[in-house]
Design goal:
about 200 residues, Helicase, Ruva Protein, domain 3, Dna Topoisomerase Vi A Subunit, Chain: A, domain 2, about 45% helix, about 10% strand, globular
């Protein structure tokens, strides 16, 4: 039997995405066995993040400084702006190091079923940011879900009158994907986006 503190740690870890009760118990046992090399550095890192965690006032990223490291990076092109639904999407795109511009996090997607309206998202802040000038291209990097595509079309309509080129991510066949495993929607997008063989 574990102490109430260890049980509380196990339950807290079990609430994390991708970890269930068994994985959480294994993680706790690993941390206990390696107290100096795993547990104590983890505690210190969690405390540092908890003390310094802020939301960037420019883009909506989560960081330990405001403005965040992405917004203050002088190597990024301020004329390129990528709009994403969530911070996780920003991190995923930035980890790939394929986009050299800056970002704007909406904080979700439009969803009538969940009661998420345009005023619940950072759409107005995006329009204000683009209207201020200096941005030549906006890439709408929404998820390929019904709500994501609805959000993309709504944002594109809001940006329509501004002097900016509005783009969307390409959709279609994933690398390594086999045709017989793909759904009809993905196949339809791939066929519509067909191009000449180079």
């Amino acid at each position: 039997m574990a102490s109430p503190e260890i049980d509380a740690l196990t339950q807290a870890l079990a609430r994390l995405p991708g970890l269930g009760p068994r994985s959480a118990r294994r993680a706790v046992l690993h941390l206990i066995k390696r107290r100096e090399t795993a547990l104590e550095p983890l505690v210190a890192a969690l405390q540092a993040v908890a003390r310094g965690l802020v939301t960037c006032g420019i883009c909506g990223n989560v960081d330990t400084s405001d403005p965040c490291g992405v917004c203050t990076d002088p190597r990024r092109d301020p004329a390129l702006l990528c709009v994403v639904e969530e911070v996780a999407d920003l991190w995923a795109l930035d980890r790939a190091r394929l986009f050299a511009g800056r970002y704007h996090v909406l904080g979700g997607k439009l969803s009538a079923l969940d009661g998420v309206r345009p005023e619940d998202l950072a759409i107005e802040a995006l329009v204000t940011r683009v209207a201020a000038g200096g941005i030549a291209e906006v890439v709408l990097a929404m998820n390929a879900t019904l709500e994501g595509q609805t959000t993309m079309h709504y944002v594109a309509e809001r940006l329509a009158g501004l002097d900016v080129r509005v783009m969307q991510l390409a959709h279609g066949l994933p690398v390594g994907g086999e045709l017989d495993y793909l759904d009809e929607g993905t196949l339809a997008l791939a066929l519509r986006a067909r191009r000449l063989v180079e």
